[in-house]
Design goal:
By secondary structure, the protein is of the alpha/beta class. The chain folds into two domains: 5-54 and 300-403, Aspartate Aminotransferase, domain 1 (Alpha-Beta Complex); 57-297, Aspartate Aminotransferase, domain 2 (3-Layer(aba) Sandwich), CATH 3.40.640. It contains 15 helices and 17 strands. The chain has helices at 5-11, 44-47, 56-68, 79-92, 103-122, 141-146, 150-153, 171-177, 201-213, 236-239, 265-268, 284-297, 300-324, 349-358, 381-403; strands at 23-27, 30-33, 38-41, 96-100, 128-132, 163-166, 182-187, 190-191, 197-198, 217-221, 245-248, 259-263, 327-333, 336-341, 361-362, 364-365, 370-373. Helix 4 (79-92) runs parallel beside helix 12. The longest helix is centred in the last third of the chain and has 25 residues, at 300-324. The two termini are 42 Å apart. 48% of the residues are buried. It binds pyridoxal-5'-phosphate (PLP). Pyridoxal-5'-phosphate binds at residues 102-104, 107, 136-138, 188, 192-193, 221, 223-224, 249-250.
Amino acid sequence: MKITRSTFDESMFPCYNPLDFVITSAKGALVYDDSGDKYIDLSSGIAVNSLGHCPEIIAKTLKKQSHRLLHCSNVFANRYTLELARLLTHKSGFERVFFVNSGAEANEAALKLARRYAFDNSGAEKDEIISFEHGFHGRTFFTVSVGGQDKYSQGFGPRPGAITHLPYNDLAALETAVSAKTCAIMVEPVQGEGGLIPAQPQFLQAIHTLAKKHQALVIFDEVQTGNGRCGSLYAWEQYGIRPDILTTAKGLGGGLPIGAVLTSTAIASHFCPGTHGSTFGGNPLICACALEVLKKISTEKFLAGVKARACILHEGLNHIKEHCGMFSEVRGLGLLQGAVLTEEYANQAGQIQRYLAGWGVLVLTAGTNVLRFAPPLNIKKSQLKKALALIEQGLLDYKKIKQI
Ligand SMILES: *Cc1c(COP(=O)(O)O)cnc(C)c1O
């Protein structure tokens, strides 16, 4: 079958605008396209391929599990989902887990759980969800409404109500807004899609304190920051503020679709048979693979390796900032870093992303003004340094072309 980049435009919903090549294979931090070009991948399928592309452990587990049990639904318990549940609750320090297939579904479940918890404990009036401008929580109608980008939820009819958006890292706004009506505060410890903005410690502390005072639940959306991405298994550990509910997805399956909602036994008890569910959530094939991913990424040694790579990335980007003069700031946490473009290059993130692919490096954007870097957590240090060198050369070249 003849497949080219045009096949996308002819066959797919025009929801995306992929770069001008077709990927055919990938291994570790390297990606190959159909003309044989090679790229160093600092995108990891949007912070998903935590162990790089096609890691041996996943290939091996997929093969083994495909002969044992692929799917059986949650009508029946199976060994593989329960093994992951045991390890994930143990490693994260939460008592209960609910498995889903994506980040949006994890957040959807968390928001429903928070509403139900408040409904059961305090009645229907306690329904307000507080979230933050530029926050991103997924694309279901509830999660996109809780997310802080108006344009993502407009034009789809009446939105779910009782959602208040506040400026991120704004203590005064928070203090004014949280009340007895608040049932949950949903926040990303580092805003990912919103531009790689880390929460200030006092901000998360205030969320925690105010939520406690008003009997609201704190939900950390760690879909992107979780699973070792920021240098600890979950980012909250670095802030020392444990949420009531934690959601995660992206990196947990090492390239396979899985999400999770983690919480206490007391909170989880507000979901019972009939209140929520999923056909594929906790699928044994994916859980068997996620178990192997989690075993690897949750060790001290592995996380120390993430931190070491994060230093190389952060310092490398700062060096490029000094040298190329195209970044106004480098920010983020761990192996989730953003480079904010200067005024002169405002709105060119997409164009620069394409240009850098031409130089053999895949990067992400976060909005139109920020380049986002999320390499595999185990990327070879030499590959990371090579990619940074290519980015520097590529950006200097881009600058030259722009000046002509
Ligand atoms: C990617 C992301 C989501 C949505 O995850 P999907 O798997 O695309 O549904 C939600 N929250 C955050 C913080 C994310 O980065």
